[in-house]
Amino acid sequence: MNPVTDEQPADPTSLKWANHFVSLGPDFYTELQPSPLPSAYWISRNLGLARELGLEQNWFESQAALELFTGNRVADGSLPLASVYSGHQFGQWAGQLGDGRAILLGALETSSGSQEIQLKGAGRTPYSRMGDGRAVLRSSIREYLCSEAMQGLGIPTTRALCVTGSDAKVRREEIETAAVVTRAAPSFIRFGHFEHFSYTDQHAQLKTLADYVIERFYPACREAAQPYAALLEAVSERTAHLMAAWQATGFCHGVMNTDNMSILGLTIDYGPFQFLDAFDPAHICNHSDTQGRYAYNKQPNIAYWNLFCLGQALLPLMETQDQALAALESYKTVFPEALQARMRAKLGLPDTQPEDTALVENTFRLLAANKVDYTIFWRRLCTFTPQSGHEAVRDLFFDRESFNAWALQYSERIARVDIGLRADLMLKNNPKFVLRNHLGEEAIRAAKLKDFSGVDTLLTLLQSPFDEHPGHDSFAGFPPDWAASIEISCSS
Ligand SMILES: Nc1ncnc2c1ncn2[C@@H]1O[C@H](COP(=O)(O)OP(=O)(O)OP(=O)(O)O)[C@@H](O)[C@H]1O
Ligand SMILES: [Mg+2]
């Protein structure tokens, strides 16, 4: 690393950068330096992830770390780069995209495997097109908090180590300030990386990429008769599990373009996302999505559509189209099974009974008809007993008769389940805290005035969302009326 002054703790010697992605070769990326931001300051640091990455706490709090994670200096051994990818956006082939504002620093080896470290918002790259290479404070705080919220919920995701800010101005609909989120993931490779090399007829590079992904992340596929079909099947299964997790949690992603689909089945690119407030299956969280392509209830089908694009991109590596189609089939069984398993856990059902599918469907139907707050319903249901009056749950419904009929059906089902076992299962699967839009908005408003304490408070709550956190019930309440007027678009 560059020399540091006496006041700054030396960079930990354990910070050894590996540059796995570089081994793919120059067709896959452009080496470049991040663009510095003036007078950077910390917005928030994620000490838990820092520990997992092997960063010493006193170093992580130093000026040297601040400069490194803002992109103002580059560590020895790190080879910063931006990768090239393409993709389908809102159902249309968009051609070449790439890391227009994300710069990969390299990977850190941890006890739980290699983690790539990427700066989002660290300046222009050859793939920036018309963009400025920057990210604004507002969207960076949202990405930081939601990444860790998803991790806390047990949903596969890219992680976020810290957010740094600067008073440098960035133009969006209005003038805002710049920020950088440091992300971590085993890999940031997207479906769009494969599409890029396939659509540009670079089939040797397509094979190199597929082999790299198989070797590093899906080694079992190498043993299969058709390794590339096996890869497609494995990615389909991971994506199916991801969609089940999103749907069960009431998470809307908002921009499920193929360039925002992780080859590892991680949630990636936190833009206009939203956790549902009132349960509305057709809810559209992205103000720019006028057609509702990425509405909550469309997500599982869109994921399949995106997998189909991945399958098409992989075709040059397969002998027949049927191999790709067969590989995609797994999604159609894994997704519904995974969703049922998650919904059974939310209902507190440790085993499977034939009537459970109908119970889950009835629950969704009832929640939709009554526009019930999704998170609050499930958390209150944790203390439901057939014997009690269960007013706390019933009060959420205006159609009391339908609720009573549902409660009878549910009571009959849970009569055979140990009450302690059920409560335990439910409290681990029905979070008290999710990152509702208004919570993020309040923290962002304070952060714009340089009060970052709200970001840290939310981070703590969201990292263990199933815990009670006494004294913080106001973060688990209904959204205020003004929350309905928050419009989140692609602008970030
Ligand atoms: N301000 C910007 N400057 C340069 N490129 C941008 C900017 N905003 C978006 N892009 C690029 O536009 C494309 C689509 O953007 P999208 O919103 O999906 O991604 P993103 O939010 O920038 O990043 P990621 O997917 O890495 O989280 C990507 O190639 C992205 O890098
Ligand atoms: Mg993106």
Shape: globular
Q: Describe the biggest sheet?
A: 7 strands, antiparallel
Q: Count the E strands.
A: 13
Low-confidence stretches: 1-6
Instruction: Please bin the fraction of helical residues.
Output: 40-55%
List of distinct ligands in this structure: adenosine-5'-triphosphate, magnesium ion
Number of helical stretches of at least 4 residues? 16
- How are helices and strands ordered from N to C? EEEHHHEEEEEEHEEHHHEEHHHHHHHHH
Nearest-angstrom radius of gyration?
23 Å
The end-to-end distance, rounded to whole angstroms, is: 32 Å
Family: Belongs to the SELO family.
Keywords: ATP-binding, Magnesium, Manganese, Metal-binding, Nucleotide-binding, Nucleotidyltransferase, Transferase
Active site: 259
EC number: 2.7.7.-, 2.7.7.108
Keywords:
alpha+beta, 3 domains, 7-stranded antiparallel sheet, two-stranded antiparallel ribbon, 13 strands, 40% helix, binds adenosine-5'-triphosphate, binds magnesium ion, EC 2.7.7.-, EC 2.7.7.108
